[in-house]
């Protein structure tokens, strides 16, 4: 599919359940700011963020299976960053979710130092089975 236009529109909480593995998104409605992503005017995913317990901005992302592997994630992230003013965005990803880790790295996320991860885990601010990635939004280079 040739995707020519990506947009962020009003969040649709029924559409999200049609996304394969949507439970991995860990989206808590009412606790964050979320959008439905459209690609060529069709619903293609969900993106948004919530302010985590430590004050950091945490990304929530899910792309519908029909639209994966086409760079929708990166384009939607650029749109999200244009709408909101944050310098950095964090994303907590299961270490076992290799597709997600790779996709995050592709759009410029880097894993935070292991020592910081350990501190967050000890404070109960992130799950043991996860890793924490961060992207500087101010200096986008993709
Ligand atoms: C993770 C996710 C958001 C990525 O979205 P996407 O738009 O497909 O991502 P992109 O097109 O930017 O990147 C795809 C990259 O992911 C990686 N990837 C995708 N599927 C993969 C797989 N099955 N195994 C390994 N790597 C994979 C590849 O590196 C690929 O890059 P390439 O196309 O250059 O090879 C999407 O797969 C998804 O919604 N998954 C289910 C929900 C989820 O896990 N959300 C994240 C929770 S932290």
Automatic annotation (TrEMBL):
Residues 1-132 form the N-acetyltransferase domain. Pfam families: Acetyltransf_3 (PF13302). GO terms for molecular function: acyltransferase activity, transferring groups other than amino-acyl groups. SUPFAM superfamilies: Acyl-CoA N-acyltransferases (Nat). This is N-acetyltransferase domain-containing protein. It comes from Candidatus Roizmanbacteria bacterium GW2011_GWA2_37_7.
């Amino acid at each position: 599919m040739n995707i020519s236009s990506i947009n962020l529109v009003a969040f649709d909480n029924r559409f999200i359940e049609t996304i394969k593995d949507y439970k991995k998104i860990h989206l808590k409605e009412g606790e964050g700011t979320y959008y439905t992503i459209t690609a060529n005017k069709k619903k293609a995913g969900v993106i948004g963020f919530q302010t985590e317990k430590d004050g950091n901005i945490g990304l929530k992302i899910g792309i519908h299976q029909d639209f994966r592997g086409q760079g929708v994630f990166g384009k939607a992230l650029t749109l999200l960053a244009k709408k909101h003013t944050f310098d950095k965005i964090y994303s907590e990803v299961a270490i076992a979710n290799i597709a997600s880790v790779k996709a995050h790295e592709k759009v410029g996320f880097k894993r935070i130092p292991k020592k910081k991860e350990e501190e967050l885990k000890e404070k109960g601010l992130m799950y043991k089975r996860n890793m924490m990635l961060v992207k500087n939004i101010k200096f986008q280079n993709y």
